[in-house]
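Page 37, top half.
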Amino acid sequence: MDPQTFLDIATTVTKLKMYPYFDIAHFMLMCMAVRDDIPQGTPGSPIFSRKHPLSLWLSSMLLCFGGGIIANMLLGEPLIVPLKDHRAILTASAVWYLVNYSPFDIVYKVAKFLPFKLVICGLKEVQRSHKVYHAVVHTMKIYPNSYLVIVLIGTLKGAGSGFMKNFERLIRGFWIPGSNELLQPSFTTKAVAVAATVFLLEKLNYITAPHPLVYFGVVIFFVYFKLSAILLGIHDPFAPFENLFCAIFMGGMWDAMRRAVTKTETKEETDVTTKTKEDKKND
C-alpha cells in the first residue's frame, strides 16, 4: 500500500467519532458480559433478569462506565461524572434492555452469532484505543511528570470493566473472592497497559512516528489479538514471556534447582536405606 494512502487511513481512524456505533458495541459487550456471568438457576426457577431487573441494570451500567468511575476516583474527581451524559445513559439502557428483554431473545442471539460478534468486538477495540489515548492525554495535563499514574489511569480507562467486575457481582449477590483482575490480570489489561505506555512514550517524544500511525498501530494491535482470541483461541500471547521472566527474576529458576537437589538427596537416601536392608537380609 502507498505510504500516503496508509497515512490517510490512519488519520481517518484517529478522527472517528465514537458515538453512536462504537459506544453501542461497547455497551452491548458489557451487557452481554453481565448476562453471561449470571449463574444458571435450577430448572423452573425465575430468570434473574425477570426477578431482579434493577440489580441487572445497575450491574450493566457499572461495567459500561466502570473505567471512568475508577479513574475519577483515583484522580480525585467526582465519581458521578461518567454518568452525567444523559445520551450515553439512555443509549446504554436501551442496549441493556434489548440484550436482556428483546422478543425471542433475538438481539442476544444475533450478537452471539460469530460474524456479528467479530464486527462488534472490532468496533469495541477501536473505542478502547480512543479511551486509552484520551486518558493518557488528560492525565498528563494533571500529573505531567507522574508516568506511573499516567499509565495506570490509561490502563483503567481502557480495561476498567475487569476491575469493576467484583463490585458489580456484589450488587447481583454473587461473589468470587479468588477471581479479580489483580490476582489474575487478563490479556486485555496487559495489552492496555502496553498501549498506554506507547502513548506516553509518544507524548514524551521517544516515539517520533506521526501520531496517526502510532494510534492506528495500537488499534490494529487490539483488533488483531481480539479477533485471534475469538477465531484461534489465542488468549494471552504475553504468557510465555511472563513465564520466562518469572523463571529468571522471580525465583522460579532457584526453586527448580532446589527441587532438583532435594529430589537427588531423597533418591540417595532411599538407595542407602534399600542397600542397608538388603545387606541385613543377606546376613
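Page 37, bottom half:
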Amino acid sequence: MSTTNTCAKCNLNPEDWTSEKLKLCSKCRTVYYCNKECQNNHWPIHKPMCKPHDPQQTWAIQLLDKEEFTKLGTEEESARFRHIRIPNTHPIFRTGEICPIVARCGIPLLIYSPVLHGRLSPERDAQLENQPAVYLRIEPHDAFAPFQWQIQNPGTVILARRDHRPLTREAAEMMWKWASKIIHAAGFGTYDGWGPLEGLVNPATFQMFSRDYYERQTEKGRLGFDSFYHPL
C-alpha cells in the first residue's frame, strides 16, 4: 500500500502541481496515479500487488533458493524475487532475523528461513543454496553472515519489513546488491578492500548506491526502477 500521496509511476505530488489531482487505483485502492497514461505504464509493476488492502496482511518477498530458481528456466536474477502476501501472524515477525547492514541504513528488513528456523527439514541441502539470502544476513563489522548461515544452506527464504510496510522485489534486489557491494568493500570479492567497513554502512552511502542502482536499471530498460522513493 502506498504511504505517500504521489503518483506511483512518475512521483508527481499534487502540492507541486495544483492543476493535477491524484486518483486511486479503483481495484486495490492502495496506490495513486495522476492520469491513465501513468496507470497503464505502471500496470506491469503494480499487477502482482493489485489487491485490496488487508491490515492483517503484509506484502513480503519470497527469495528462491538455487533449485527453485533453476526450475524457472531463466537466468534473470530478478526472477528469484516473488511478491507474496503473508499474515501478520507469520513466524517471520516473531523469530525472523534482522538484516543488520540494511537495518543500520534505516530499512527494518527481516529474513526468515524455514530451514534454519526449524520449520523445514534440510533434505535437499545441496540444492538449498541461496547466496543472496546469505549476503543479506552479513554483519556490518566484518561482512560475514552468522556461522549457521555459512555452514547450512538456508533454502528459499521470506523477506519482510518489520514495520509491515510493503516490500517490492525491486527494492529487495537492490538491497541484495548493496550487501554484495559491502562484501567487495571489505575485500572479500574480486577487488581489494577500499574503505573502513563500519564507516561505509550508513544511510548516506546506502541512498547514494540505491539511487545509482535504480538509474542504471532504468537505463537498461528494466521496469519498476523508474522512480526512487526516499525512504524506501
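Margin note: Strands lie at 23-24, 32-33, 57-63, 81-87, 97-98, 109-112, 157-161.
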